[in-house]
Please model this.
Amino acid sequence: MYVKVTCVGGGPAGLYLSILLKRQDPATEITVHERNPEGSTYGWGVTYWRGLLDKLHEHDPESARAVEEASVRWRDGVAHVGDRTTRHRGDEGFGIGRHRLLELLAARARTLGVRLEFGHEMTADALPRDADLVVAGDGLHSTLRGQDPEHHGTHVTAGRNQYIWLGTTKVFDAFTFAFVESDHGWIWAYAYGYGPQGSTCVVECAPETWTGLGLDRADEAEGLTLLGKLFDRLLDGHPLIGRSSADGRAQWLTFQTLTNKRWYRDNVVLLGDAAHTTHYSIGAGTTLALEDAIALAAALRGHPTLPGALAAYQREREAALLPVQSAARYSARWYESLPRYIHLPPHRMFALLGQRHSPLLPYVPPQLYYGLDKAAGQVEALRRFKRWLGPRLARTAHARTSPDRDQRP
Model:
């Protein structure tokens, strides 16, 4: 049915979609275009959870086995708050180097007959006119989506805090949080291993802490030195590693939450970060991108017309994203409200860190919430009341809040 498919963007979503479409119909001609040279990618490692791995095994066992074998895993979560530490057992999590993940998916796609083209930008004007389907998997700043943001209803909300993606040669055996108090406020890191070569370390802080520490003025080398001193207890003498930008500037960002009202137009469809983003603190970006690919491949297989397939794909993914997007909003808000929680005893603070997705937590004093949550674990009536009250408080607060930080790209 779809003789020729063009995918713009060689990230996990685009590569995995090409694998699934080739498995569905080996005769389909699929080309993936990636702007960066092969083997060059940003970031160090990505996280995912057992549920995604089970889906990968269901849809393409060969690539799933390769990904699982190349991943590290953990069950513990560790929180360092100043000189205090607490450790908790949690769900099974996985980490894999982003470069390795892309390498494995690209090799699998090539084996199935997908054509991969690296090192040149694919613009709307350069798209092949005989393509039956064009997949815009080119990320947050999608060139194809940017051709008509009004049609897509593209909306971007900027977060408050500053953050930076870094690497380190220290290999963490658990998903680790570290909160450090500086003279200008709290600064914290999320760290997780992705292989024997090292770990990802995301550092975040409030804007007043960022400027107070001089991180807004420091170049990358100066910033890494300062952060290394702040997180010396976490790093055990290992260095932090930056992205080595050409101009030497540190790659600090504010998170951009992106949504779109319409995910497709004619034969062009959005995939992964081009369609939606969720705050990195819930560790779901790669999972959601791959789940998009799974849903789009299934919709194309199950519907006789392209408009019907793309509409079904959007409906399914929007429904699946609702709870994840809600969790991401509340997770980001938890970190933006860190002073509300940081002085609790470590085990209570860590417990509320684990509850940061709750729509009820922002509206209940933290100590009271901790007690209610502990009691709710033992009393079914309290659990039901908690599930009933949280969304209602959240909707009421949302209705009273104007989106003054929202902006169009």
